[in-house]
From TrEMBL:
Keywords (A to Z) from UniProt: Membrane, Oxidoreductase, Transmembrane, Transmembrane helix
Coiled-coil positions: none
Origin organism lineage: Bacteria, Pseudomonadati, Pseudomonadota, Alphaproteobacteria, Acetobacterales
Protein name per its UniProtKB record: Omega-6 fatty acid desaturase (Delta-12 desaturase)
Cellular component GO terms held in the UniProt record: membrane
Stretch forming the signal peptide: none
Organism: Acidocella aromatica
Domain of life of the native organism: Bacteria
Amino acid sequence: MLNPPTETLTPSMLRAYQTPSLGAAAWQTASAFGLYIACVVAMYAALHVSVWLTLALAVPASGLIVRIFMLQHDCGHNSLFPSRRLNKIVGAACSLVTLTPFAYWRRLHARHHKSWNDLDKRGIPADFFSDCLTLAEYNALRPSAKFLYRVSHHPVLIHLLLPPVIFILLYRVPFDTPASFRRERRSVYLLNMALAGMFALLIALFGIRSVALVQLPAMAIAAITGIWLFAVQHRFEDAQWSKAEDWSFSQAALHGTSYLKLPLVMRWFSANIGLHHIHHLRPGIPNYCLQACQDGLVKEMKSVTVLTLRDAFKAPSYALWDEASNRMVPFPP
């Protein structure tokens, strides 16, 4: 059973930080899109100077894609803007940059918020990067199944190779979405049509080679970074899992996710997603209020696992939940 938090958090404590600000949301949206567009224009212009300069600019461009994805994420929780309609409009606009269908991904992500770190609710395909087997389940597998599981969960595969495939290719189809979810499936097809038109125009203007050199590296780096940020905050050594009868929303947030302390620049590009424990406690808190919430409730949050950047780079090696020791462990030798 999960350990209780050392201090009691009440809904009113968290609700105080939940009110969205139209000004803050508008500034975040305008600045992120403005900087991204400027960066992309610079990348196309740099092709006339050096391909390597364009590729170097893919790094800040990818950071801006991550930030725009985090704004889309807030819109999915109706937390960025005070208006639900504005959240939907801006969320859909973000999808043109992130290549992630807004309504479709919002539904998948809502399932994550209902089941994370619950041993009895594993197996959701969209949670592949935060899911795991227990050590006992892994040891019970046949040798061939153990090999396949290790290969399919190797950090090189899930943190380097798969993320670009997911964002660039897999999100073009409504996988894991029932036919009855018409709005979600329609969002996939509408985004595909919009992307086809946008990239057709870019190719007509600059040529397919230039478009590939500008768009693909930035998107690939952003996908790798985004998946890593998400995964390491759910699957680290001290992350706690529990069975359904022991699972509770607040304890899973405080002990099943982490406070990833990132450098200031990375905090900006990731829109404070490192404060993941607060996000899971209260998904309606906008990204621009998360730090204030952490600072204002330090005593109540002191039981949360704090990860440094160094810890986060080691986190992908923790692949199995050991029920005996109540911690995540690497694959056995």
